[in-house]
Amino acid sequence: IIVVMFIIIALVKMPKNEDSNHKVHLFLTLKRLISNKRYREGVVAQFFYVGAQIMCWTFIIHYGTRIFISQGMAEKDAEILSQQYNIIAMIIFCVSRFICTFILKYIK
């Protein structure tokens, strides 16, 4: 999928910027973004959301490893199996987000 996206990006030409006299100032742009309260709150919320998600998935791996070890499995095998379950959970999570976003078109 990534290779296909790289090929598409390489083949599709971006439109010319109509306003070529307009200069982009990084500092002014960042200052304007930081002065936007909703933007700041969104960045903070996203930071904590990603942190919580990583923490939960890490906990799942450790929890699964301990459960499998307590059932007599070798530690390395338990870690591998826990990681495989975690990857499956991530795939289900990602697919569910797309499906639920699609369903939201029909729910008001």
TrEMBL record:
Sequence intervals crossing the membrane: 42-65, 85-107
SUPFAM superfamilies, per the entry: MFS general substrate transporter (SSF103473)
One GO cellular component term: plasma membrane
Keywords from the named record: Cell membrane, Membrane, Transmembrane, Transmembrane helix
Cellular localization per UniProt: Cell inner membrane
Mode of membrane association: Multi-pass membrane protein
InterPro entries noted in UniProt: MFS_trans_sf, MFS_TsgA-like
Keyword Membrane: yes
Protein name, per record: MFS transporter
Native source species: marine sediment metagenome
